[in-house]
Specification:
single chain, alpha/beta, Rossmann fold, 2 domains, elongated
């Protein structure tokens, strides 16, 4: 079983060390997958050079694209690419995330691999970075790469939402666990499942003195444990690899990932867009900022990207 068949790697134009490329080449070797390296570039000053004719601007643009292709070719000399099928794409596009998603759709890639970078202050709440757009809008798997290595016999943490209330959640849980196991088989790793559940509402406990908070938490925990066990049974995942914890997913998942020294966290993202998404973000986005390992985002079945080719 291979993890992936066709990998799209998003290169960082400003760095010599390419975390995403390292990870992608490793994946390609163990999966015998094809690799496409892509770079999206754009310089607004080229479009504003009104003194030049359109043909001259196109020539300048093509020259810049060719320069970046040469840079990528030179970059590959530092890597072992023997026996790997590698393609190079440099695109002129003023929206990098659209260029990435369009390339993924046109090339029928089943995973996008991209390095992550921290975002300081509040800027990421207002100006959504490329990472966020990919998590919400890319139709395929998205692997966001951090510094943590992928050792053999490592651990992969799959985040499951067990409510039993929706076929949509059940379907996404299945896709998450299948993806985790597929990667675990390639990487010789062990899959763990985590389910976070909410604690007792503070307002109820305050307004109703006779409300039994301890009993409520015990019942909720038991229900989630049963639901997670039923899900795990379908995939032959042992009880020791099942974790049910009280708290918000963006708190529970990073804490457990650190405890397990997980190499990869796998979770689902529903692709929420619009103003509410810009302000609130998704669980995947909150988690990626707090974990020190890679994150693999999985879309629901039938998801269609809002980016149209």
């Amino acid at each position: 079983m291979s993890c992936v068949n066709s990998i799209l790697v998003v290169l960082d134009p400003d760095k010599q060390q390419q975390k995403a490329l390292n990870r992608a080449l490793h994946l390609a070797r163990i999966s015998q997958a094809k690799v496409t390296l892509m770079l999206s570039i754009y310089d607004f000053s080229y479009e504003m050079t009104t003194m030049l004719a359109a043909e001259e601007r196109n020539t300048m643009r093509d020259s810049l694209i060719n320069d970046r292709r040469v840079w990528i070719t030179d970059l590959l000399e530092d890597y072992n690419t023997r026996d790997l099928q590698i393609d190079i794409k440099v695109l002129w596009h003023n929206r990098p995330y659209e260029a990435i998603i369009e390339t993924a759709i046109n090339g029928q890639h089943d995973i996008i691999v991209k390095a992550t970078h921290p975002h300081e202050g509040l800027a990421h709440l207002i100006f959504t970075p490329t990472d966020w757009h990919l998590l919400r809008k890319a139709p395929c798997l998205v692997l966001l790469v951090k510094e943590h290595e992928w050792p053999e016999n490592g651990k992969i943490l799959a985040a499951i939402h067990t409510t039993g209330e929706s076929e949509h959640h059940d379907s996404l849980n299945t896709r998450i666990t299948e993806s985790a196991q597929r990667f675990a088989k390639c990487l010789h790793s062990e899959v763990h499942l985590v389910n976070a559940y909410p604690g007792a509402p503070v307002t109820i406990a305050a307004e109703i003195p006779e409300f039994d908070t301890a009993n409520y938490r015990e019942v909720i925990a038991e229900n989630h444990q049963k639901a997670l066990a039923a899900h795990a049974e379908q995939f032959n995942i042992t009880l020791a690899q099942q974790h049910v914890r009280e708290g918000l997913p963006e708190q529970v998942i990073p804490e457990l990932a650190e405890e397990l020294d997980a190499e990869l966290v796998v979770l689902g993202t529903i692709g929420r867009t619009g103003f509410s998404a810009a302000l609130l973000g998704n669980t995947a986005e909150h988690v990626i900022e707090q974990i020190n390992c890679d994150l693999l985002a999985v879309k629901p079945a039938g998801f269609e990207s809002p980016v149209k080719v």
